[in-house]
Design a protein that fits this description.
By secondary structure, the chain is an alpha/beta fold. The chain contains six helices and four strands, in the order βαβααβαβαα.
Length: 152
């Protein structure tokens, strides 16, 4: 385990009408073994309670010393929202995830370790869908090493 509290990581989470899911990655970030230095939630013009839910977590992050920002991106589309967060990020490592993601407790620690170990400019990780079939998830794990080989 890395012997510090924060990693030089900005986490960007784009969100559009995610009131049913947005708490999952935010709570996952609060449980990290190594906290990100910054969390940026980009509301992509939601018409539900996404913004209100996201704002409920501000104090919890600030108590831990994490910069927590909620931005608005009016141009529709996840790419616009993600780019808005990336341009606003203040840390040398930018991690992005989706509003319906369940994060492992060592996600930030793993990201920082990978950057330190490899010196890479960018990394990507595997995903597992909780509502996909067993076969679909297995195929993801079989195909991912091919992507690693192509981009290494």
């Amino acid at each position: 385990m890395i012997d510090k509290l924060f990693a030089p990581v900005s986490v960007v989470i784009p969100a559009f009408n995610e009131e049913d899911w947005i708490s999952s990655p935010i709570e996952g970030l609060l449980r990290q073994t190594l906290l990100p230095s910054e969390v940026i939630i980009v509301d992509n013009n939601s018409s539900d309670k996404t913004t209100e839910i996201v704002m409920e977590y501000k104090e919890a992050f600030e108590k831990k010393g994490v910069v927590y920002r909620v931005l608005q991106e009016l141009k529709p589309g996840v790419a616009n929202a993600r780019n808005c967060g990336w341009f606003a990020a203040g840390q040398p490592i930018i991690a992005s995830t989706d509003a319906d993601t369940i994060l492992p407790d060592n996600w930030i620690e793993s990201i920082e370790r990978c950057f330190e170990k490899t010196g890479a400019d960018a990394i990507a990780g595997k995903t597992v869908s909780s509502d996909a079939s067993w076969l679909a998830n297995k195929l993801t794990f079989l195909v991912f090493p091919i992507y690693s080989w192509i981009t290494a």
